[in-house]
Specification:
Distance between the termini: 10 Å
Helix content: 25-40%
Shape: globular
Structural class: alpha/beta
Radius of gyration: 20 Å
Number of domains: 2
Strand order of the largest sheet: 3-4-2-1-5-6-7
CATH superfamily of the largest domain: Dihydrodipicolinate Reductase, domain 2
Order of helices and strands: EHEEEEHEEHEHEHEEHEHEEH
């Protein structure tokens, strides 16, 4: 590949696409030409990139002619249809949907964990699920120091995970409830404002939802550990942006909280946030707009001599999606 690249953002007007656009500018990605692609509903709009107004084009089969790199965030069905066409046109696709993540020939990459995997692609590289990315960034440095035996994770997932329209729906529901009216639901199956519910993706025969199994299967692939022991409970909470996770780790030997804190304080993509006197630890409002995964409340599990507890928050749109995709792109052009 050359020193500058013709780049297309597929799903440019969505929450993740908008963030990708900003990150390409702020991180000075070597773009020689930028094409913004979306559905016909968004075609004709303009978006700013480095002081220039660029038109949003309706995506078509010819949209990828001459393009080197496609950053796709338009949903699984669209990716399944268009990603192979982009590859046939000569582009590399970094896809943010779940369409290709578990295909054996498609690398699933978190740059802080398995950057080498990005080189072994056949035209498509998959971006993991947001909750998986945030967890992997925090767990990998600990796992490298002492292999993790078992993970129990509970997620507290914001509305942003369902997109910009879901975030707006929560705001409207809150206004309605505060005005004494019944909240309306269109994106979520139940009201989320002043409420929470288990993640509403389809359940398997064991009672685990799709979102929970993504965390299990994707972590195993990223860590290259097919038998990695992990169980998850995913919950949607009335937070606009940034996901949180409570994680219990079991090791074969004791792992002191002070040692874990020291390792995480030096880990790429992690920022330790702990003020025990003030009872101040990572919060979604602090993680919003940040690149790092905020980790804190690192403590001994009092129920197990080899157990460790930690709490994290991370911006789902940023590190959980857009930033991770741009970091993968940066690996390709180094």
């Amino acid at each position: 590949m050359s020193n500058s690249y013709k780049v297309a953002i597929l799903g440019a007007t969505g929450a993740v696409g908008t963030e990708i656009l900003e990150l390409l500018a702020s991180r000075n990605f070597p773009v020689s030409q930028l094409k913004l692609l979306a559905s016909g509903r968004s075609a004709g709009k303009t978006m700013e990139f480095k002081g220039e107004s660029l038109p949003v084009e309706m995506v078509s089969d010819r949209s990828f002619d001459g393009i080197d790199l496609v950053l796709a965030s338009a949903g699984g069905s669209i990716s399944k249809e268009l990603a192979p066409k982009a590859v046939s046109a000569g582009a590399v696709v970094i896809d943010n949907s779940s369409a290709f993540r578990m295909q054996p020939q498609v690398p699933l990459v978190v740059p802080e964990v398995n950057p080498e995997a990005a080189r072994n692609h056949q035209g498509i590289i998959a971006n993991p699920n947001c909750t998986t990315i945030l967890m992997a960034v925090a767990l990998w440095p600990l796992h490298q120091h002492q292999p993790i035996k078992r993970v129990v994770v509970s997620t507290y997932q914001s509305a942003s995970g369902a997109g910009a329209r879901a975030m707006e729906e929560v705001k409207q529901q809150a206004r309605a409830i505060l005005a004494g009216k019944e909240p309306e639901t269109h994106i979520f199956p139940y009201p989320l404002a002043f409420n929470l519910f288990p993640h509403n993706t389809p359940l398997n025969e064991q009672g685990y939802c799709e979102e929970e199994m993504k965390m299990v299967n994707e972590t195993r692939k990223i860590f290259n550990a097919p038998d990695f022991s992990l169980t998850a409970t995913c919950v949607r909470v009335p937070v606009l942006r940034a996901h949180s996770e409570a994680i219990n780790l079991e090791f074969n030997e004791p792992f002191s909280p002070s040692q874990a804190k020291s390792i995480l304080s030096q880990a790429p993509g992690v920022k330790v946030v702990e003020d025990w006197q003030a009872n101040y630890f990572p919060m979604p409002v602090d993680a919003t707009g940040k690149d790092e995964v905020l980790v804190g409340r690192i403590r001994q599990d009092i129920s197990h001599p080899c157990g460790l507890e930690l709490w994290l928050c991370g911006d789902q749109i940023r590190k959980g999606a857009a930033l991770n995709a741009v970091q993968i792109a940066e690996l390709l052009v180094k």
